[in-house]
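About this split. The held-out portion is used to measure sequence recovery: a designer receives only the structure tokens and must propose an amino acid at every position. Recovery is the fraction of positions where the proposal matches the reference. Here is one held-out target exactly as it appears in the evaluation file.
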């Protein structure tokens, strides 16, 4: 997938019928399950997170596949309207200090099986799709056991009382953008309490470029305080009656003309004693965009998973689970181009591939320091520099830095060179 920049059987097999059949049989094998593939996501992550403060970013993406009225491919509905596909919920481990993607830490891939007749409000947590937020965080505690601290970061959909009551504890914190106007112990609601709190600080943050907006700087006004959420009436009697949290509201009061203003109301179990603490936590939440990159890298901007012609939901879900791992590797390579937190190349390459990279790197030694690999040997940054060069990057800092497509092209070229390397060794 990484080399072909596609999940298609024909593209990956390069027209080799035998290779197509191997791939098809792998996805068709009942012993190959989505759960086992997802379990394998975090094999390298466990090593990378040791001793770090890790942001465990989680989010859900709808993967939509073309169907017809006569052939739904075994898929359930996603989103609004007559749209069918699978849902991917992923958790990504990111270094809180550097923003380095350390790998996937768990998740779930599923498709809906028919309509549910019981109203959402009357179902127990274990019967709701929202259980994924709590279950993924609980499973990640084991995968991320060797971290110094875990901060689970959600978007608005992860803001519900059971999550606040069940997930935090020990070295595990929770940070989420608020969706609900929670009732508070002693009366009143969250948003009323926030509105009564004066702004106390200002700061500028850089917003990364997205498909719907250019990169820009936002000038934020900030206020923070503490609240105690009250357990919703008539629900979850086994949960504690209240949960103490801190809130941070960051608002862009004067956005540029035509720009959508930033407005984040965040809830967290972290202590917030000063404006500096609050802006640090805002910075952690801002890193949530990295998991959005993962989903974009799987779709039109990368592997184009939604173009897959596989005909059964079971195989489509396996393919999506594999593609999530592949897209994560691309993000790690793109980040590694600038150095920073050094990860070992074994996160992406085998021992033989690293040996081949070393030989290729020797051929890139230019007449100037700018054309020489600047990164420590046998780090992921060192390997990423080589792959980017193979993908057509000039190596000059003044030129456009290599992006996902450059790395896909570089990996494709590298694999062709690697085949020659292995024949040489034989």
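Reference sequence for scoring:
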């Amino acid at each position: 997938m990484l080399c072909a920049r596609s999940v298609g059987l024909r593209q990956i097999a390069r027209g080799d019928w035998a290779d197509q059949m191997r791939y098809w049989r792998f996805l068709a094998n009942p012993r190959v399950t989505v759960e086992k593939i997802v379990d394998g996501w975090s094999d390298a992550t466990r090593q990378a997170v040791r001793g770090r403060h890790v942001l465990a970013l989680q989010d859900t993406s709808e993967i939509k596949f073309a169907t017809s009225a006569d052939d739904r491919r075994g898929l359930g509905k996603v989103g609004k309207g007559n749209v069918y596909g699978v849902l991917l919920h992923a958790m990504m481990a990111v270094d809180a200090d550097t923003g380095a993607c350390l790998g996937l830490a768990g998740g779930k891939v599923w498709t809906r099986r028919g309509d549910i007749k019981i109203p959402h409000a009357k179902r127990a947590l274990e019967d709701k799709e929202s259980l994924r937020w709590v279950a993924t965080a609980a499973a990640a505690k084991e995968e991320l056991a060797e971290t110094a601290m875990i901060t689970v970061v959600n978007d608005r959909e992860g803001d519900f009382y059971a999550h606040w009551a069940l997930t935090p504890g020990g070295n595990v914190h929770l940070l989420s953008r608020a969706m609900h106007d929670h009732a508070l112990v002693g009366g009143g609601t969250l948003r009323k309490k926030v509105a009564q709190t004066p702004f106390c600080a200002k700061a500028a943050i850089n917003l990364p470029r997205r498909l719907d907006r250019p990169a820009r700087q936002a000038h934020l006004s900030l206020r923070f305080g503490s609240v105690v959420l009250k357990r919703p009436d008539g629900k979850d009697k086994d949960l504690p009656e209240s949960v103490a949290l801190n809130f941070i509201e960051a608002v862009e009061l004067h956005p540029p003309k035509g720009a959508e203003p930033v407005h984040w109301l965040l809830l967290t179990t972290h202590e917030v004693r000063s404006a500096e603490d609050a802006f640090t936590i805002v910075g952690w939440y801002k890193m949530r965009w990295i998991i959005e990159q993962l989903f974009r890298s799987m779709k039109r901007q990368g592997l184009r998973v939604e173009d897959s012609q596989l005909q059964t939901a079971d195989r489509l879900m396996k393919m999506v689970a594999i593609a999530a791992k592949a897209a994560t590797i691309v993000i790690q390579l793109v980040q590694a181009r600038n150095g920073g937190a050094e990860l070992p190349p074994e996160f992406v390459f085998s021992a033989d591939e690293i040996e081949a990279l070393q030989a290729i790197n020797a051929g890139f030694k230019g007449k100037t320091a700018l054309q020489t690999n600047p990164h420590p040997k046998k780090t992921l940054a060192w390997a990423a520099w080589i792959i980017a060069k193979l993908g057509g990057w000039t190596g000059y800092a003044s030129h456009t830095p290599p992006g996902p497509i450059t790395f896909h092209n570089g990996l494709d070229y590298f694999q062709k060179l690697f085949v020659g390397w292995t024949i040489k060794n034989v």
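Annotator remark: The chain has a mean pLDDT of 90.
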